[in-house]
Design a protein that fits this description.
The chain has helices at residues 3-21, 29-47, 58-74, 80-103, 107-134, 158-178, 183-200, 203-221, 228-249, 252-259, 265-280, 291-298, 313-343, 347-355, 366-380, and strands at 138-139, 143-144. With 390 residues, it is mainly α. It has a two-stranded antiparallel sheet. The radius of gyration is 21 Å and the shape is globular.
């Protein structure tokens, strides 16, 4: 693959790196830079004569991106400003998905992206783990966030950090199992990323990341591309390294949170209120980007706190977009499920969507959602279902 063909994929990767590193920035200007870059790439791609790759999951995702515009046209949203912002965000996600499928569809480009993403994830995980112990509450150990126990690197929410690592961990594990020359490097990256999840003390993140490791191992075992004996030896080595890594970062934080699970009153009330919102407007929804504005109408408890999300993306999508929007994303997930599992390195998007059942990785931080749609596009572009060895 020639350098000019690789440059657009490199530029997309740099934009995604910017989206993560700027997550702690207040205001939308950092995200706006990402959007400008993505839309500029989309406009450039339309001018290129190379045939554009379009696959089945694009249809429900395009419908989801058009839905907030329909809500605005029909006047069904309770807050037009929030829905306009959501429409721009979903348009961005659509373009990211198309660009990922199109620009990273060839094997050399795909392996280059996987390696870059895994190494970038390792670097961020190192910074996040160091920051957790050396400078808690500071974004990248540089900027004060005003928080104490939530900051992990550029992320100001440990659960969202873990959701991002869940996207990257299968890539690193896949490369550790299949890359002949840099196996030790990617095994180390996997251990570092998993250790950072444990250090974050996120209950859902730790459980899902551990399950993800098992799922990747099983998926590799049933494939013919990796020798069983080598895989067993690699798994044993990984377990030893992971045990050492967890002992270094400490498991007491996450274990303490497991033992002291509270009643989660606000989460339960947010879920109950969301179901009432769906019942009130099942087909049109309240308008994308409006959940926090209408939640007080349905809340049954008042703790004096601002509840910004439903802590369940799927329920929030149904509340804001109605059942049609929920179904668009359900069919997108259903069509993306098979290529994600077949590719193995795309398993992270499956786990990410499972995480969305108990938290809100797709809300509040659009840069994180952009990563999800990029990974979905990369996994979906693998036509063989199993990449040749790098």
């Amino acid at each position: 693959m020639t350098a000019p063909r690789r440059l657009p994929a490199v530029f997309l990767a740099l934009l995604l790196a910017w989206a993560v590193l700027s997550l702690g920035v207040q205001g939308r200007w950092a995200w706006a830079i990402f959007q400008i870059g993505v839309f500029a790439m989309g406009a450039w791609r339309l001018l290129v004569t190379r045939p554009l790759v379009l696959r089945a999951p694009l249809v429900p995702l395009a419908a989801a991106a058009l839905w907030p515009l329909l809500q605005l046209a029909l006047g069904t949203t309770v807050y037009r400003g929030g829905t306009w912002v959501a429409a721009l965000d979903w348009g961005t996600f659509l373009v990211v998905f198309v660009l990922a499928q199109d620009l990273i569809r060839d094997t050399p480009e795909r392996h280059g992206f996987l390696q870059a993403a895994a190494l970038f994830g390792m670097c961020v995980a190192i910074l996040a783990t160091i920051g957790e112990f050396a400078c808690p509450g500071k974004i990248l150990c540089l900027f004060d966030s005003g928080l104490s126990g939530e900051v992990m690197g550029p992320f100001v929410n440990r659960n969202q950090y873990c959701a991002w690592i869940e996207l990257l961990l299968p890539m690193s594990l896949y490369l550790a199992a299949t890359h002949s020359r840099r196996r030790a490097l990617f095994a180390t990256a996997s251990v570092v990323m998993f250790g950072s999840v444990v250090a974050s003390a996120s209950r859902a993140g730790t459980a899902l990341a551990a399950a993800e490791i098992v799922a990747v191992a099983v998926a590799l075992a049933v494939r013919h591309g990796v020798a069983r004996r080598r895989l067993a030896l690699g798994a044993a080595q990984f377990v030893v390294l992971a045990a050492i890594g967890v002992s270094v970062v400490g498991w007491q934080g996450v274990w303490g949170r497991w033992r002291n699970v509270g009643p989660e009153v606000l989460r339960k009330d947010a879920l109950k209120a969301s179901l009432q919102m769906i019942e009130a407007k099942p087909w049109s929804g309240s308008g994308l980007g409006t959940w926090s504005r209408i939640y007080p109408r349905y809340a049954s408890v008042d703790r004096g706190l601002f509840v910004n999300q439903a802590h369940n993306d799927w329920v929030q999508w149904a509340a804001e977009g109605g059942l049609p929007f929920f179904l668009f994303l359900f069919f997108f997930a259903a069509l993306s499920w098979k290529p994600a599992i077949q590719s193995i390195y795309g398993l992270g998007m499956v786990v990410f969507l499972l995480h969305a059942l108990v938290d809100y990785p797709m809300q509040q931080r659009p840069g994180l959602a952009a990563w999800f749609f990029c990974v979905a596009g990369v996994a979906g572009a693998c036509r063989q279902g199993w990449d040749p060895k790098p």
